[in-house]
Design a protein that fits this description.
Blueprint lengths: L1 H17 L21 H7 L38 H20 L6 E6 L4 E6 L1
Antiparallel strand pairs: 1-2
């Protein structure tokens, strides 16, 4: 009995090895092999190089306007100036520019710097 079982297993194993065969492209119907049927290495080999960029398509339709969001919190109060504070600050700035020029250049005559509010800048004239 043991000999019979051994003979049976040997014969089954021998038939399994002999049944292997190759499938050719003539035997495959069109559009039947899917991507999952192909190994990853073959999928990578089938990829070609990237082609040129295509044309830009037409602009899509404008979507509906979104909902208005909630109002944000009130911000901090701004710094307030008295009516002549800006003029005083510009005078100080122009005086400082004149002092810097006086300290840096000693060969030129002294120039008087004054605020020019038309251009929000300091202008000068020679004394």
């Amino acid at each position: 009995m043991i000999v019979a079982l051994v003979a049976l297993f040997v014969s089954l194993a021998g038939n399994a090895g002999a049944v292997t065969y190759f499938v050719t492209s003539k035997q495959i119907k069109d559009h039947t092999i899917q991507l999952r049927d192909i190994s990853y290495g073959m999928q990578f080999a089938l990829q070609g190089s990237q082609g040129p960029r295509g044309f830009t398509g037409p602009q899509g339709f404008t979507g509906p306007r979104g909902f208005t969001g909630p109002q944000g919190p009130t911000g901090p109060a701004g710094r307030s100036y008295d009516p002549f504070q800006l003029e005083q600050d510009m005078r100080k700035l122009c005086q400082a520019v004149g002092q810097i020029q006086k300290n840096a250049v000693t060969t030129q005559p002294y120039t008087y710097w004054y605020p020019d509010f038309r251009y929000s800048a300091c202008s000068y004239y020679y004394n």
